[in-house]
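pinned: reference chain
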Amino acid sequence: MNWMERLNERAALMGRMIEAIGAMDNGPAGVQTGQALRSAAIRCVRCTRSEACRKWLADHPRGADRAMADCPNASLFNSLKDQ
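pinned: its structure tokens
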């Protein structure tokens, strides 16, 4: 997989995770949220657990209360949901 395919795949996984837990449902926004999401995207691209992420998303087709526990962005996604 080339770097552009990996970037697109990880962006899609990140978006699906955010959507699955409703992290953006309360409308967190602003400069700090934007910066945090950019950092999260970098962590996602570097993550070696994409297969586990895909499986977790497949196992939670109706969503979940919290992000996958071993996601490197779980604490951020959960905190966005809790805002």
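why pinned: Helices lie at 3-21, 31-46, 50-59, 74-82. The chain has one domain: 3-82.
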